[in-house]
Write a structure and sequence with these properties.
- The protein has 221 residues and is mainly α.
- The protein contains nine helices and two strands; from the N terminus they run ααββααααααα.
- Strands 1-2 form a two-stranded antiparallel sheet.
- A hairpin with a 1-residue loop joins strand 1 and strand 2.
- The longest helix is centred in the middle third of the chain and has 39 residues, at 69-107.
- The protein is globular and about 60 Å long.
- The model has no long low-confidence stretch (mean pLDDT 90).
């Protein structure tokens, strides 16, 4: 654990770079997400992650298979590709939150409630990661020409998996970033760590530039 903390900011920069790179790849893939529901229109991966009813996800997948052949193949290839790229995104994203939480815990008084809280939030990212893996496997199995609606019990389980994944990861990230901002404003930071902040800012700048560089275009049928 001491080694992780010692090299925490270096690993954070590496994981953030991987996370942003895979995010950009998935952004490119999402530009091919179309379905035919009376008219051709776009959808997002969030539409698949938060179906309100057991029949909503199969209906969306059927709308994808209703596309003309060429458009259907592009969408299916991009959708499956994004789910596979997400397996590379996961360790980078949850690993980054894990390191942020451990860095905050290390700045707290040893054995204090706050230190224990942030340590728990860090290790809970493993649970969020497992939930994300289950989600992707579930979605990959659902992408077929004849998707079958899940049972009510399976649908509720899937909803809980999404709730845990997003709840744990967002709580850890927001809490850690808020604590680090407090340390920054109050002057409780090590000057040597500023170089890592510049690296992270540069990585974010490159990511934003790449996203803006790719202009949305019209989909050919």
């Amino acid at each position: 654990m001491e080694t992780i903390i010692t090299w925490g900011w270096t690993w954070l920069c590496i994981l953030t770079a991987v996370m942003l790179l895979t995010s950009w790849i998935m952004h490119l893939q999402s530009r091919e997400f179309y379905m035919l529901d009376v008219v051709m229109r776009k959808f997002s991966i969030l539409d698949m992650q938060f179906p309100a009813t057991p029949g909503e996800l199969p209906a969306l997948i059927k709308h994808i298979y209703a596309l003309p052949e060429a458009a259907r193949q592009r969408t299916l290839s991009a959708l499956r590709g994004q789910l596979w790229v997400d397996f590379l995104f996961m360790p980078a994203a949850y690993g980054s939150i894990f390191l942020l939480c451990l860095e905050v815990a290390a700045k707290m008084p040893p054995l204090s409630v706050c230190a224990s809280l942030f340590s728990c939030l860090g290790w809970l990212q493993l649970l969020a990661w497992i939930c994300d893996i289950i989600e992707n496997i579930y979605l990959l199995q659902k992408i077929r020409p004849d998707p079958v609606p899940s049972t009510q019990a399976a649908h509720r389980t899937y909803q809980w998996i999404e709730f845990i994944k997003w709840g744990v990861s967002l709580t850890g990230m927001v809490s850690a970033l808020s604590a680090l901002l407090f340390f920054w404003v109050s002057g409780q930071y090590v000057t040597a760590s500023l170089i890592y902040l510049l690296v992270l800012a540069a990585e974010a700048g490159v990511f934003i530039f790449l996203v803006l560089l790719v202009k949305p275009g019209k989909r050919a049928t």
